[in-house]
Amino acid sequence: MKFSVPRQQLYHLLRQSSEPDLAAAALYIAQEEYPALDVAEYLNALDTMAMEVEERLPADPYPLKVLQTLNRYLYEDLGFTGNSQHYYDPRNSFLNDVLDRRLGLPITLSLVYMEIAHRINFPMVGINFPGHFLIRPHRDDMNIFVDPFYQGEILFEQDCCDRITQVFGHPMDLRPEFFSVVSPQQFLVRLLNNLKQIYLNDNQLEKCLSTSEQILLVDPQCYSELRDRGILYYHVGRWSEARQDLEDFLAQNPSPEHISLVHKLLNQMNEFS
Q: What pTM value is reported for the model?
């Protein structure tokens, strides 16, 4: 497969380091939608924002004071906010749009927050919380979480329990995996899955397929995505690629519930070949 320039950049970035620049990766993803996007310009914007935060830090930068400073700067001074009104607007998933419009999803607002925190030497990590992305300081002595979608609200574990009830509409027992730290690869896959679902709900199959291709570029071992890409290839009429993906998926010995549809599509393509 011939990669576009943004995908080439993303491919090289991800394979240069186990801790790639997440902001750059997110901007290369956005470049698929905005070919003229200047990645360096937006990285410089994040650098400038971090310098402005540093100027506001108190003389004794205790962790909670750093978080308060970040919150005042992002949400009071700059006006960043979660886009609750138009949550499924695809622009909420593109970092350039989030920086321009100051609106975003939990994961993209978390990215802005983490990138600025990283630049002021206050590293934070993403938390694989179900249904709602959170972040926390990368410190063993701080068991608190931050919700960048809701004005940087600081949460403790009980608050997280309330948040998950709010997201799913019913109480759920908190499990340790809800608080696991995401890797850069997992972060980008979650970002792209959000975008893929938005396109799928809007029946934009070509854009959905493009996003599926990006997911497999980020995580080539994501075999469920191989199945999804094969199904998308099928629906847009690219049967040769669909057949290859679906056969490769079956070769991974998937669970029985996933086999029936794949065989059905392969049989349909064979009948009309």
A: 0.94
